[in-house]
Every structure is written in C-alpha cells, then in structure tokens.
C-alpha cells in the first residue's frame, strides 16, 4: 500500500477530450497536474474524509512522476540555459513577449530531461489550443486534420494551436512533409520532442523552419532537490515517508540524469518501505486509528536496491547511443585505455548489442589502429569473432573481453592504414601511370612481341630473394607510402624496410 494522503481531485476543468488527432486541451488550467481523487470516482460535491488510519493507504491513480510535473517554467529543474528571460521557451509559454511571436521548436535530449514536461507547461498558455500527437500512432491524415483545424482556429477565432509531437524521429519523411505548410505559415506552433539526433531523424526543411533546443542531462544536485520535493510535496508523498541519505545517493547513482527514472524509483522504493513496515507492525484498524496512522516508514538503501534490482542501461541500438558508445569503445582501444574499453564493452553487451557487431569492430580496430606493430592482434580479433559464432552468448562475452584486453594493451600503429589512404588519394588524383612492361602479363600468345615480361627478374633467383628492378609506374618511383612507427614489431620492420628499399631501388 502507498502511504500518501493527498486529497486528489479527478480530471475536471480543461479535461483532455479524445479526438482523431489526440488529446486536445482548450484553456488548460492545470488538470494534467492536479492531484487525483483517491476514491477514483471523480465526482463533484462534498467528499467524505477518510479515517486517519486509512488515509495513508489511499493509492494515487497517476504515477509520482506525473503528479510532480512542474506547473510553470519556474518550477522546472535544470535546463536553465533554455529558460533565460526572453528565451523562445518563455515566449512560447506566454511568460515573455517576443518581437515575432512564438517559434516552432524541436526539443532534443535524453529521456527524463523534461521534454514532455515543457510541452505541458506550454499548454497552460492562454488563448491557445493544445493538440498532442504521438508519432507512434498518428499518420499523415491525422496531421492534415490538425493543420486544417488550426487554420480555421487562427483565422476565425484568433486562437493559436500548439501541436506537441512526441517521438518525431519515428515519423516517416512523408509524415514530416505534411507538417511543413502549417509550420511555415504558422498555422501551428510545433513543439516536437525526440531522443534521437534531429540531424539524422528530422528532414532538413523542417529543421530550417524550427529552433533546435538541446536539453542536457540533469545535474545530480537538481535531481536530489527533486527527490526531496517529491517526498514533502502534497502532490507527491506528502511527507508520509522519509528518505535516508544512503537511499537518496543510491537513487542518484542509478537514475543517470533521468528525472522520471529517479521519481519512479523513489515511488517503488517507498512502496517497498511501507509494505515492510506493514508486515512488521500489522496493527488492528482501531489501534492504527488511535495511533494516528502508526510510524513513518524510512526508505533505506536496501529498499531502493530491492525496488530497482539494477540500473537499466540507456542504449538505443539504432540511435545516437549506439554510435556514441561504439565510437567511445573504439577510441578507448586506440587510446590504450583498457579499463574504459571494458566499460563500453559491458554497456553494449548489457544493452543487448549483437556480439557479432562488436567482433567485427574489433577486427577493424586490429588492422586500423594496431596493424603490424602487433600482427597477432588481428589473429586474436578474428579468433574472438569465430568463438562468438561457435559458442554464442553469454559465454561469447569472454573471448570478446580477451580480444579487447589484447588490442587495448598492444602497441599501436596506423602506418598500413595511412599508407593505403595516401595511395588511394594518388590514384584518385590521376597518378596511375602505365604498368612497367616487364611486370605485365606475358602468358598469352603475342604478349612477347609487345614486350610484356621482357627483362623481368625472378626474385627467387637472386641471392637475397630480392630483385633490383622497378615496380611502380614511372611517376611514383621513389614514393614511400608505408612508414612504420618506432613501436612494437614495426621497430624491426623499419630496419628491414630500409634494407629492402635499398636493394629494390638499386641504392
């Protein structure tokens, strides 16, 4: 049972009205943020007061994260870089006046940073209609209907339509194209939210017609204050539980800058704490009433751990997190930080990344960043990939870890990779002269009459197995592409290469 006693009111004034375009709010005055009726009736008129012993067993109908949503921009924690006086968000919320009126915006940030909260605060503005669509369920027909209604509302009623589009990155190009006329002609003010990089997921014309606002993960102090507010606020836990310092630190460690996760975790931990207290005391109803509701439960670290089990890994295999974590993984190997590389390997594996993808990246890294400084690195990476195919997961993580340790601690050289890049650049620049006659194919009839293969020196007939003759085209004679570094195996290769080039070039 949850302990909070808040007398919660049912959705009444400004109630969301279902329509084909989602929930529409006219003149919102706070119904989305008001507390809900603990009886679930939502009926108006006088309400009976619950007995003291039973009041603490009232169960909120909405999650704690919803009940604690800010009702104004001033209540929002974090994102102060977007909330300065005169900022687009304050103009859009009706708190400041801009010279050109409100602008369409795209809110980009990780989960739990306040994108939906900002949209609902904006919904409280006067003389506006708030329409919410989800890119998961809405289609082009829904978008066009919103645009038609918005044009009518603007021209006939002088009312601005604010369209909140969640998960815009899930919209197809055609669906995003349908937004363009309304945004360009200001039939609607678009507030779009996405966790994916808009540069990859939103079409360029829509980006150019909107302001991109980047939300940052909340600071630890911001979320700590939010947790304390949720414990004491009548909309939250109403002061009927206490949060220990150890539990608060544990929640802060696991939320990863996600306010919604922090509040959801707090609510779950409070449930565990109160259930444990009930099991320990289990007073008779008359005794509980006489005691004024019994002892106040204290949320401990153990309660938080029991409620959460472990942190969920934030990782989208098709989005920014995928590319960011993989990039950090490879750069950690290149930078010889084996510990950081192990961390990113663990993040990918825990998030369900395909181990074969990881193995392929290791093979590339072995050649690109290590090369002949440690020729066995490529063998280890290929062996790890084969092992993953043979044994599967979860045991496949072990050879992957071995390969990561080998590659991260191996001497580094990109000499072979750089040599190829320089050679390719020359070819693309037109430096690809004729193949020397003595190197050309001479196996077919008539090739000898063309001079193909004439005067070719067979290397194995030479004393050192190296023949002094020209191999590159004339214009590339004397060009050095491969320049081994003074690390690992390439230190020895550099000495051998100096001798080989001297013989081949007749020096």
TrEMBL record:
Compositional bias annotation for Acidic residues: 277-289
Keywords of the record: ATP-binding, Nucleotide-binding
SMART domains, A to Z: AAA
Signal peptide (residue range): none
Any one GO BP annotation for this protein: DNA synthesis involved in DNA repair
Residue ranges with Basic and acidic residues bias: 1-11
InterPro entries from the UniProt entry: AAA+_ATPase, AAA_assoc_2, AAA_ATPase_RarA/MGS1/WRNIP1, ATPase_AAA_core, DNA_pol3_clamp-load_cplx_C, MgsA_C, P-loop_NTPase
Gene3D superfamilies assigned: 1.10.8.60, 1.20.272.10, DNA polymerase III clamp loader subunits, C-terminal domain, P-loop containing nucleotide triphosphate hydrolases
Ranges in coiled-coil conformation: none
GO molecular function, one term: ATP hydrolysis activity
Entry keyword RNA-binding: no
Top-level taxon: Bacteria
AAA+ ATPase domain mapped to chain residues: 101-222
Keyword Disulfide bond applies: no
UniProt-annotated stretches for the region Disordered: 1-69, 276-295
Family: Belongs to the AAA ATPase family. RarA/MGS1/WRNIP1 subfamily.
UniProt name for this protein: ATPase AAA
């Amino acid at each position: 049972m949850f302990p909070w006693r808040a007398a919660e009111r049912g959705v009444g004034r400004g109630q969301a009205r279902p329509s084909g375009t989602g929930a529409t709010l006219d003149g919102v005055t706070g119904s989305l943020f008001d507390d809900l009726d603990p009886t679930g009736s939502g009926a108006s008129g006088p309400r009976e007061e619950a007995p003291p012993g039973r009041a603490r067993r009232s169960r909120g109908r909405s999650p704690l994260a919803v009940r604690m949503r800010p009702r104004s921009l001033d209540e929002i924690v974090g994102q102060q870089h977007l909330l300065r006086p005169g900022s687009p968000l304050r103009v859009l919320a009706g708190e400041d006046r801009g010279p050109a009126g409100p602008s369409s915006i795209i809110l980009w940030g990780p989960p739990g940073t306040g994108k939906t909260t900002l949209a609902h605060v904006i919904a409280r503005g006067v003389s506006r209609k708030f329409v919410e669509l989800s890119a998961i369920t809405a289609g082009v027909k829904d978008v066009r209907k919103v645009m038609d209604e918005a044009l009518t509302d603007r021209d006939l009623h002088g009312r601005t339509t604010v369209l909140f589009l969640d998960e815009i990155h899930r919209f197809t190009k055609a669906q995003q194209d349908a937004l363009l006329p309304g945004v360009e002609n200001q039939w609607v003010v678009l507030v779009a939210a996405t966790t994916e990089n808009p540069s990859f997921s939103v079409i360029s014309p829509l980006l150019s017609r909107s302001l991109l606002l980047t939300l940052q993960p909340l600071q630890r102090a911001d979320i700590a204050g939010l947790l304390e507010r949720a414990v004491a606020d009548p909309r939250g836990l109403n002061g009927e539980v206490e949060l220990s310092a150890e539990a608060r630190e544990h929640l802060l460690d696991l939320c990863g800058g996600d306010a919604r996760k922090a509040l959801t975790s707090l609510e779950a931990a409070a449930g565990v704490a109160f259930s444990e207290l009930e099991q320990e005391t289990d007073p008779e109803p008359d005794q509980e009433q006489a005691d004024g509701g019994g002892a106040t439960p204290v949320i401990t670290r153990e309660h938080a751990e029991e409620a959460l089990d472990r942190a969920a890994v934030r990782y989208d295999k098709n989005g920014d997190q995928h590319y960011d974590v993989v990039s950090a993984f490879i750069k950690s190997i290149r930078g010889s930080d084996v510990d950081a590389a192990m961390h990113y390997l663990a993040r990918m594996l825990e998030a369900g990344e395909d181990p074969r993808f990881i193995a392929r990246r290791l093979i590339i890294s072995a050649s690109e960043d290590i090369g002949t400084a440690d020729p066995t690195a490529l063998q280890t990476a290929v062996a790890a990939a084969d092992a993953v195919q043979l044994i599967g997961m979860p045991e496949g993580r072990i050879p992957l870890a071995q390969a990561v340790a080998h590659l991260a601690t191996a001497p580094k050289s990109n000499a072979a990779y750089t040599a190829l890049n320089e050679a390719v650049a020359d070819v693309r620049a037109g430096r690809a002269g004729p193949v020397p006659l003595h190197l050309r194919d001479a196996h077919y009839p008539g090739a000898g009459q063309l001079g193909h293969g004439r005067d070719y020196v067979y290397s194995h007939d030479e004393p050192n197995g190296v023949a002094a003759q020209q191999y590159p085209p004339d214009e590339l004679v004397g060009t050095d592409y491969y320049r081994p570094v003074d690390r690992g195996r390439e230190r020895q290769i550099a000495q051998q290469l100096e001798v080989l080039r001297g013989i081949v070039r007749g020096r």
